[in-house]
């Protein structure tokens, strides 16, 4: 299957993408990984992207699209792929359609992870990270530390990242509504959107997504 994963920040896209890709035996292609791989391998696209980033500018769509195209053409993606973080806007979605048409491929589904806005704010604004080891993550509501402000694992100080404050989260949501959400209507017009609730435990959401994708595939 060839799938695009969409949803607001805090919907758990990265977590679900990893589980779904494993269950479907297809590669998980995220824009973050694409940039890191191209930059670390010093590919021409990586050097180009880095030049924009070093200058404090956004990487142009055409560079991101070229990276995605190159990755989708790798042997492990012949049987399908799951795109996470791309496309981010309608112009990228249109460019992706052109690439797929050229390669005689098509998307099978666009999986939309739906989460109420206040839940997104609660999820992200409640995160607390350990200063000693950033892999130690707690949540003020869902997984609080035994002692307030102290990491259970190593005793390090817990803090809230600047981009996890409620004000920042609401700004990120506004960007999502303005730039990314319109691609849902774009893909709805093609009959590709499968919407599921991203509320609940991780394995419950994964099972819900797999069931929805199977029903969608059977329906086609």
Would you summarize the structure shown here?
By secondary structure, the protein is of the alpha/beta class.
Share of residues in helices: 40-55%
Coarse structural class: alpha/beta
Write down the overall mean pLDDT.
93
Q: What overall form do the CA principal axes indicate? A: globular
- Whole-number radius of gyration? 19 Å
Strand order of the largest sheet: 2-3-1-4-8
- Count of helical regions: 9
Q: Give the termini separation.
A: 12 Å
Largest sheet: 5 strands, parallel
Q: SSE string, helix = H, strand = E?
A: EHEHHHEHEHEEEHHEH
List the helices and strands and how they pair.
Layout: E1 2-6, H1 13-24, E2 28-30, H2 31-40, H3 44-54, H4 61-72, E3 81-84, H5 90-102, E4 109-114, H6 117-125, E5 127-130, E6 137-139, E7 158-159, H7 166-180, H8 182-188, E8 193-197, H9 202-219
Parallel strand pairs: 1-3, 1-4, 2-3, 4-8
Antiparallel strand pairs: 5-6, 5-7
Helix pairs in contact: 1-9, 2-3, 2-4, 3-4, 4-5, 6-7
Question: Can you give a write-up of this model?
Answer:
There is one protein chain. The chain has 220 residues and is of the alpha/beta class. It has helices spanning 13-24, 31-40, 44-54, 61-72, 90-102, 117-125, 166-180, 182-188, 202-219, and strands at 2-6, 28-30, 81-84, 109-114, 127-130, 137-139, 158-159, 193-197. The strands form two sheets. It has a five-stranded parallel beta sheet with strand order 2-3-1-4-8, sandwiched between helices.
């Amino acid at each position: 299957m060839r799938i695009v994963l969409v949803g607001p920040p805090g919907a758990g896209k990265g977590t679900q993408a990893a589980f779904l890709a494993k269950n479907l035996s297809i590669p998980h292609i995220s824009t973050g990984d694409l940039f890191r791989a191209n930059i670390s391998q010093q590919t021409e696209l990586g050097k180009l992207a880095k030049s924009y980033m070093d200058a404090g500018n956004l990487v142009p769509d055409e560079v991101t699209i070229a990276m995605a195209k190159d990755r989708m053409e790798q042997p492990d993606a012949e049987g399908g792929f799951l795109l996470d973080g791309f496309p981010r806007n309608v112009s990228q979605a249109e460019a992706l359609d052109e690439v797929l048409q050229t390669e005689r491929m098509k998307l099978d589904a666009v999986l939309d992870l739906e989460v109420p806005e206040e839940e997104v704010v609660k999820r992200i604004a409640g995160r607390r990270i350990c200063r000693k080891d950033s892999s130690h993550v707690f949540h003020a509501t869902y997984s609080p530390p035994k002692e307030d402000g102290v990491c259970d694992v190593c005793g390090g100080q817990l803090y809230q990242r600047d981009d996890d404050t409620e004000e920042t989260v609401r700004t990120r949501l506004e960007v999502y509504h303005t730039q990314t959400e319109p691609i849902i209507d774009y893909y709805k017009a093609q009959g590709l959107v499968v919407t599921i609730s991203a509320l609940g435990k991780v394995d419950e959401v994964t099972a819900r997504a797999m069931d929805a994708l199977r029903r969608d595939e059977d329906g086609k």
